[in-house]
Write a structure and sequence with these properties.
Oligomer: single chain
Shape: globular
Number of domains: 2
Order of helices and strands: HEEEHEHEHEEHEHEHEHEEHEEH
Largest sheet: 8 strands, mixed
Helix content: 25-40%
Mean pLDDT: 91
CATH superfamily of the largest domain: Response regulator
Distance between the termini: 33 Å
Radius of gyration: 20 Å
Strand content: 15-25%
Strand order of the largest sheet: 1-2-4-3-5-6-7-13
Low-confidence stretches: 1-23
CATH topology of the largest domain: Rossmann fold
CATH class of the largest domain: Alpha Beta
Structural class: alpha/beta
């Protein structure tokens, strides 16, 4: 079943109540449960819930479990301003047993709010403050698959120039930039490299402008670390009429354009399911639990059908990273 249909089915299983909070839309979904204790779960997202990428899949990880785990789910999305984030997390803490945060931009707010709300458990998707008993995190090291993509990009480029386009300025963005560059230069030390962070994962116009500039400068392989902004990159390529290939994060969007050759598959639904299971079992980790490429069911650099011949090379590089034969840049 597709991710969007999973989301629809999960919402249809319960009731949906719309309200407005902190300048963002809040939804509430109630699962069935057959007499189970109701678990109130607040989901905070740093971007839109319908981005076809990170934020949507993070939410789906909760909603697909709503009925089976008897979850009463409330959602606040598009949280970008620091005060807005703090207010949203504070408001969610007042009415929920568990808060799951999707997006590293939420971490600072959780670090500030969690200790003041000891009866609510906070689980974020970035590195959190140590020593706060109700504050936990599960995160994917997105720079590691970006390194693999960098190796493939260097081998694929015909112009000898590759580029990185990042969304918001958060640690996964900067680390993916660092590691994509490292992978490319480990393959071709003199390869040309361009990088820009546009300030938003969802702004297609900014992403298009960045891509157009890089294409004009001769870049022919781009790691587009954006979500809802990806169509802007693809439009810039189409309008240029040039041979340019693209990697994207999180989800399989290969069908959107022949320019897409691979993606950092992240199974956020499974990750969030693990969070919920660990919460119910009382097994949440202290501090931050990190995932790189050790488990391909959680994260894997995956090639599109039009570049399937490169999958074996991607898997070989991945195996070397997992075996410690490749030294990743600091933080990767």
């Amino acid at each position: 079943m597709s991710r969007s249909r999973l989301f629809t089915a999960a919402v249809a299983a319960g009731s949906l109540i719309l309200a407005t909070a902190c300048g963002a839309t809040t939804d509430e979904t109630t699962g069935g449960g057959d007499g189970q204790k109701t678990i109130r779960v607040g989901v905070a997202l740093a971007g839109p819930r319908n981005d076809n990428a990170f934020y949507q899949t993070y939410l789906e990880g909760v909603t697909q479990n709503a009925e089976a785990m008897n979850l009463k789910v409330s959602v606040v999305d598009n949280l970008t301003d620091p005060q807005q984030i703090t207010d949203a997390l504070t408001n969610l803490a007042a009415d929920n047993d568990l808060i799951i945060g999707g997006g590293s931009a939420l971490v600072a707010g959780a670090n500030a709010v969690a200790a003041a709300n000891p009866d609510t458990t906070f689980v974020m998707s970035g590195v959190v403050k140590e020593g706060v008993s109700n504050l936990h995190a599960y995160m994917m090291l997105q720079g590691v698959p970006a390194y693999v993509a960098g190796v493939l990009a260097a081998g694929t480029s015909k112009t000898g120039k590759v580029g990185f386009i990042g969304g918001a300025q958060i640690p996964p963005t900067s680390q993916s930039d660092i590691d994509f560059k490292a992978g490319a230069r480990a393959t071709k030390p003199d390869i040309g490299y361009a990088a820009v962070t546009v300030g938003s994962f969802s702004d297609a116009t900014k992403a298009k402008q960045a891509a157009a500039a890089q294409i004009t400068d001769g870049v022919d392989v781009i790691y587009a670390f954006v979500d809802a902004g990806l169509p802007g990159v693809l439009q810039a390529i189409e309008e240029s009429g040039k041979y340019v290939k693209v990697f994207n994060p999180t989800t399989d969007r290969c069908a959107e354009s022949d320019a897409l050759i691979g993606y950092d598959y992240q199974n956020n639904q499974q990750l969030v399911t693990t969070i919920l299971q660990d919460y119910l079992a009382g097994k949440l980790p202290a501090g931050t639990k990190k995932y790189a490429l050790e488990d391909p069911k959680i994260q894997k650099l995956t090639m599109c059908p039009n570049s399937a011949q490169l999958q074996a090379q991607a898997d070989e590089i991945t195996a070397k990273i997992n075996a410690g034969e490749i030294t990743m840049p600091e933080g990767g």
